[in-house]
Amino acid sequence: MKKALITGVTGQDGSYLAEFLLEKGYQVHGIKRRASLFNTQRVDHIYQDPHVQNQNFVLHYGDLTDSSNLTRILQEVQPDEVYNLGAQSHVAVSFESPEYTADVDAMGTLRMLEAIRLLRLEKKTRFYQASTSELYGLVQETPQTETTPFYPRSPYAVAKLYAYWITVNYRESYGMYACNGILFNHESPRRGETFVTRKITRGLANIAQGLEECLYMGNMDALRDWGHAKDYVRMQWLMLQQDQPEDFVIATGKQYSVREFITWSAKELGIILRFDGEGAQEIGIVDTIEGTDAPEVNVGDVIVKVDSRYFRPAEVETLLGDPSKAKAQLDWTPEITAQEMCAEMVAEDLVVAKRHALLKEHGYEIPVAVE
Ligand code: NDP
Ligand code: GDR
């Protein structure tokens, strides 16, 4: 039985990857940070009682800022494959906590690689690094490929630049099977609530059900190449199954604006939106209502506004990936379109919003967290 170790197992990708590897017959080990709450919502459905013998999904307490625990876990598990997905992954937050972001995202990657080397696992253990399209930042060429020059635009991206190169360096210096997946944005119903797609689908579902009044947005002109996390974790595994370690761009090759994503999400709820005004004055107004999913919304309501707090000190305006290498060498193509993914996210957020609305109607209001 193959063993995989996943850092960031409680995150969006970690949870899908754990499911995927379990289905392939792996024993999956995950590193989980200590928190004051369980914080295992995304993996609760595959969680196994630690008192049961022969578990194939095992959680270990650990942190990417702590070499000694990483070394201990690696020694104990002796994994065939390591997926380094753990990170402070929010670009805007990295401007607020730049040093912590560097410690986890840059130094954390070095700590993992160095622990593998010191334990003499470099010939046994294959290493996947969660690299990112944010490396391209101020883009030097469109679409972006494996050879497009990097120009990071945030403390997050600069930390991930270090992680990218230290992964290449350990591959070249020590003959490790180590590779970078340069993944463009990927989303799902498990996406963190403060990333833009989930903020939109959840916010609009709440507005439709009368739990929130308005969605406050930053730069709605930003263009992204959005795929589905399920398609992307399949690719992470494929990258570790090749004869030679190489780096790959993973993207859909299609690009949409944040405003378009808002329009699609609203339409899924039967709300046809009209945008008016410019810059900080731009608003989204309800133009037409179809169906019964938005009982608390009226024609003429302003349900989208711009709030400058969501603008970043330096923005990545446009990203568009060219996944040709992944298609040619790994026979990988994304199966879920951005529109299909948006519909799935809205549908799941609407179920939750309806449940909350029902509780509220019966006097059991649960506060809805909003960023
Ligand atoms: P999430 O933010 O959903 O998950 C991040 C995971 O990292 C969580 O499990 C989190 O734990 C964990 N983590 C954070 N800090 C530490 C730490 N100090 N020690 C150990 N674990 C830590 O991210 P995604 O699943 O979306 O992304 C996975 C990886 O891929 C990240 O490295 C991200 O930067 C990268 N990436 C993501 C893309 C995307 O579009 N989703 C695109 C390109 C790259 P906790 O649950 O406790 O917070
Ligand atoms: P990103 O994702 O920064 O690309 O990083 P995010 O969803 O946060 O932002 C995408 C774009 O939307 C704009 N935007 C807003 N973003 C947020 N979060 N909230 C808002 O209100 C808002 N309004 C507009 C942003 O300015 C940006 O241009 C994600 C993360 O998963 C990284 O870890 C990963 O490396 C990259 O994708 C690829």
TrEMBL record:
User: What InterPro entries does the record tag this protein with?
Assistant: GDP_Man_deHydtase, NAD(P)-bd_dom, NAD(P)-bd_dom_sf
Q: What is its EC number?
A: 4.2.1.47
Instruction: Write the protein's name.
Output: GDP-mannose 4,6-dehydratase
Q: Which organism is it from?
A: Gilvimarinus algae
Record has Nucleotide-binding as a keyword: no
Please explain the role this protein plays, according to its UniProt record: Catalyzes the conversion of GDP-D-mannose to GDP-4-dehydro-6-deoxy-D-mannose.
Q: Which domain of life is it from?
A: Bacteria
Q: Which gene encodes it?
A: gmd
The UniProt keyword set, sorted, is:
Lyase, NADP
As cofactor, the record names: NADP(+)
**What reactions does this protein catalyze?**
GDP-alpha-D-mannose = GDP-4-dehydro-alpha-D-rhamnose + H2O
For this protein, the record's SUPFAM superfamilies field holds: NAD(P)-binding Rossmann-fold domains
The text of the family note is: Belongs to the NAD(P)-dependent epimerase/dehydratase family. GDP-mannose 4,6-dehydratase subfamily.
Give residue ranges for domain NAD(P)-binding: 5-345
